[in-house]
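Ops channel
N.P.: pipeline sanity check, posting one input/output pair.
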């Protein structure tokens, strides 16, 4: 139990001042069904921040998948239908938000596995290639669920960066690329560290370097 008399009360604005984002707080609060007790801890909030980051990474991956009409069929439509069915069942079951979140993250896990399959480097495929219709159905299911939970869009809107900062980040990434080509590993590492100090994490992949912004409670990985 939280109360002022016990000295263990936590206020939302205090969490925001500490750098925790609204989406992470929301995730923590809905991680238990509303009739159940919630053990609110800072460790749990950090885990919620990681969960939100996982959703953002998943959305970016799904949006960034190469839409190729000639790509082989995937299970994405089937998985999208499963997400919506599971989500409806959970929310119709006395607003069981915990089960709803479980359905969402099962969808994330299974879709990632499907994207791994169609992007198998051993089969000479470059990146994730999916049919446009499959991609659209999966993104639509994610959006419909998020319209209720309010996690992805809340997190994305809270992470908007001004154009000047984006330009600076891109310039530093280009400088790091040039340093790596010149085999100046110390300079490349220094640029990565410089960006990390600003909460910007780089991810190197076959299609180039991507970056993302971390918030309080989030870690790389």
């Amino acid at each position: 139990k939280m109360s002022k008399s016990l000295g263990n009360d936590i206020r939302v604005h205090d969490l925001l001042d500490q750098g925790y984002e609204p989406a992470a707080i929301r995730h923590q609060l809905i991680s238990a069904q509303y009739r159940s007790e919630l053990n609110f801890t800072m460790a749990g909030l950090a885990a919620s921040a990681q969960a939100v980051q996982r959703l953002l990474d998943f959305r970016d991956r799904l949006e960034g998948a190469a839409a190729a009409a000639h790509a082989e069929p995937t299970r994405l439509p089937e998985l999208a239908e499963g997400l919506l069915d599971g989500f409806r069942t959970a929310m119709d079951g006395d607003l069981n938000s915990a089960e709803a979140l479980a359905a969402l993250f099962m969808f994330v896990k299974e879709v990632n596995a499907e994207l791994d399959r169609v992007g198998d480097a051993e089969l000479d495929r470059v990146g994730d290639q999916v049919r446009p219709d499959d991609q659209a159905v999966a993104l639509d299911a994610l959006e419909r669920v998020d319209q209720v939970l309010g996690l992805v869009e809340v997190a994305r809107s809270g992470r908007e960066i001004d154009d000047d900062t984006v330009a600076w980040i891109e310039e530093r990434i280009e400088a790091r690329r040039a340093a790596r080509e010149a085999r100046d590993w110390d300079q490349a590492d220094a640029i990565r560290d410089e960006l990390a100090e600003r909460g910007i994490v780089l991810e190197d992949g076959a299609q180039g370097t991507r970056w993302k912004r971390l918030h309080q409670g989030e870690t790389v990985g």
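N.P.: looks fine end to end. Residues 42-64 form the longest helix (23 residues).
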